[in-house]
Amino acid sequence: MAKAIQYTELGGPEVLTLNEIPDPIAGPGQVTVRIEAAGVNPIDWKLREGIRPTPPFTGPRGTGTDAAGHITGVGEGVDGFRIGDPVVFTGAPGAYATDIAVPAEKVFARPARVTAGVGAALGIPVGTAYQAIRSLGIRGDDTLLIHGASGSVGQAAVQLAALAGARVIGTTSDARAERVADLGGEPIAYGDGLVDRVRSAAAGGVTAILDFAGTDEAIDASLELLEDRDRIATIVRGPDAAEFGIRAFGGGSPVPLTAQQETWRLEAIPVVLALLAAGRFSVELGERYALEQAGEAQRASREGAPGKLLIVP
C-alpha cells in the first residue's frame, strides 16, 4: 500500500499522521506518480491550522500540493506520458505521500538536468511569482520593488523580473542580501529608514511593487513610494488589500484569481523548467525531511527556515 501524511482535525503539527492508503489508480485524464520529493509551502500549515478557510472534514485530509517523481500509471485519454517518465506536478492535494493520482494537465515533463528536489520546489513559489509579474505587466523599463525578496516566491520573482529586463530592488535581511544580489536583484535592508533607502537607490522612483512579506512596514512603505495603486500587489495581505486600494493575488483575498491568472500559474512551471535546463534559473533548497517528519518540516517552514524545505518519502 501507499503511504500519506493526513489529518482529521485542525491544529498543530501533532495532528499530522502517517497512514497507509490504497495504491492510487490513474483514472481518465490522470497519471499516477511515485513521489521522490514534495515541496513544503506555507499554505500547507496555514490550512492545517485553520488560518485559511477549509471545508468541513469528511474523512482524513492530505496535505501538500507540489512534488516531483516519475510516472507509474497512465489513465485513459492521456497522451504524452509513459511509465517511468520523470515529472513535476503542482496543485494536487495530498503530495506528502509515496504515490498519488494527478490530473495530467497539472503534470509536466522534468528535464534530465532538473533533480526531483528542484522540481518539487517549483509549484506554488514559481507559479505565484510568474503570475504576479504577468499581472502587473512588468517590462524592461520598470523598476520593481519586491518585499521579501529572499523567500522562495521572492527569489523566483527577482529572477523572472530580471529576465524580463526590469531593474529589481529587493528587501531582505543582511544575512540574505548576497543571495538576492546573486539572483540579479539589488538588496536593501528592511527596517527603519526603508523608504529613504529605496528612494536613494531608485532616484527615478519605483514603478511597481510586489509584497511577499505582508508586514505593516511593507504595506506602509509601498503606499508611500508609489501612487499608482494598481501596480502594487500583495500575496499575503489579501483580506485587507481593498482597504489599502492595492491588488491581491491570493493570500486570503475574497477576490479569486481570474482564469487568466490561474493559467499563468500553471504556465510558469514549463517556462521555469526550460530555464533550469538552460542553466538560467536558480532554486535554493533547504533541509530535507522524511515523510514521518512532516510536522517538523511544517514547523520549520512556519519559523522561516531558509531555502525550500522538502519532504522525501
Describe the structure.
The chain is of the alpha/beta class and 313 residues long. The chain has two domains: 151 residues, Quinone Oxidoreductase, Chain A, domain 1 (Alpha-Beta Complex); 121 residues, NAD(P)-binding Rossmann-like Domain (Rossmann fold, 3-Layer(aba) Sandwich). Helices cover 30% and strands 25% of the residues. The chain contains ten helices and 16 strands. Strands 3, 5, 6, 7, 8, 15 and 16 form a seven-stranded mixed beta sheet that branches. A six-stranded parallel beta sheet has the order 11-10-9-12-13-14, with helices on both faces. It has a three-stranded antiparallel beta sheet with strand order 2-1-4, with no helix packed on it. α3 crosses α4. The longest helix has 19 residues. The model has no long low-confidence stretch (mean pLDDT 97). InterPro entries: ADH-like_C (IPR013149), ADH-like_N (IPR013154), ER (IPR020843), GroES-like_sf (IPR011032), NAD(P)-bd_dom_sf (IPR036291), Zinc-ADH_QOR/CCCR (IPR051603).
